[in-house]
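Colleagues,

For the teaching module next term, I've prepared a clean inverse folding example: a structure given as tokens, and then the sequence designed for it. I'd like students to try predicting residues themselves before seeing the answer, so please don't circulate the second half yet.
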């Protein structure tokens, strides 16, 4: 593999947070900002990024994940909370329009980010997610109550240590992640503490309910505001494989295409990575 396609560590100090990441490719190439899913980290793109040879790929450990700092105790992890820091990273790494690529929760954050950045985003690649589930009418107060209750429980929750490394890996695999994929993510999230054992590093508050969820009208406005072309890659055995979940949603985008690829929710970390890279390269070559 060319040296330029070997992952390089990246660091930023933004708003009092130390944010880490990985990059592949030279800085003179068009830039892809890659955002991982819930409880994952920047290594989520370790299989896919080296294959996107015509691009610089910068994958971020979102706050509370991987090697990045947790947010302060008074802060939250709403899906829009990362936008200010991501905007500053984008300003730092590229003066030209950038491409957003996100998996799962990272795909949802990418869509929100594109809606506010406008022409700064040239294309969006969404991996097995697009928007969050809409908030039903009359549920606002119930959602707030759940958020407060779960936050109170999680903010004081200690770390659960496991005596053996394999215990943590099997726990991660129980959600449908292959062992090979879990091993890749473990490089930035699996921690060993002498005398205590192993644990998967992420802020406990990420496991709690959101304080506020967007309504169907809010999400519709977000999608309609996006000018950039969107490629939605759906895992055949993933989370949104039911086409009925997409009906009436993607049509609100001005320019999109949907590709269905074999594999589970983490298909970009597994055997489908090569096929996905080919589809992404074709899409981006056409749109650039």
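(Answer key — instructors only)
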């Amino acid at each position: 593999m060319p040296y330029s396609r070997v992952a390089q560590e990246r660091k930023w100090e933004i708003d009092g947070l130390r944010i880490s990441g990985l990059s592949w490719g030279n800085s003179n190439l068009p830039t892809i900002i890659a955002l991982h899913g819930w409880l994952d980290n920047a290594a989520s793109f370790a299989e896919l990024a080296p294959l996107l040879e015509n691009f610089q790929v910068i994958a971020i450990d979102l706050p509370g994940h991987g090697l990045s700092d947790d947010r302060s105790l008074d802060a939250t992890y709403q899906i829009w909370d990362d936008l200010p820091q991501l905007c500053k990273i984008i300003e730092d790494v590229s003066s030209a329009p950038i491409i957003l690529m996100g998996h799962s929760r990272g795909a949802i954050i990418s869509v929100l980010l594109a809606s506010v950045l406008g022409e700064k985003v040239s294309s969006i690649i969404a991996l097995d997610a697009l928007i969050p589930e809409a908030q039903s009418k009359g549920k606002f107060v119930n959602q707030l109550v759940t958020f407060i209750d779960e936050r109170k429980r999680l903010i004081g929750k200690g770390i659960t240590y496991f005596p053996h490394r394999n215990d943590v890996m099997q726990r991660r695999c129980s959600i449908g992640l292959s062992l090979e994929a879990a091993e890749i993510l473990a490089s930035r999230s699996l921690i060993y503490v002498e005398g205590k054992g192993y644990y998967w590093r992420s802020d406990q508050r990420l496991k709690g309910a959101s304080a506020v969820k967007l309504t169907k009208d809010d999400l519709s406005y977000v999608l309609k505001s996006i000018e950039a072309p969107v490629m939605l890659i759906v895992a055949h055995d993933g989370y949104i494989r039911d086409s009925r979940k997409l009906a009436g949603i993607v049509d609100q985008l001005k320019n999109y295409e949907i590709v269905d690829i074999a594999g589970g929710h983490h298909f970009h970390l597994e055997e489908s990575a090569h096929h996905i890279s080919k589809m992404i390269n074709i899409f981006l070559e056409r749109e650039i």
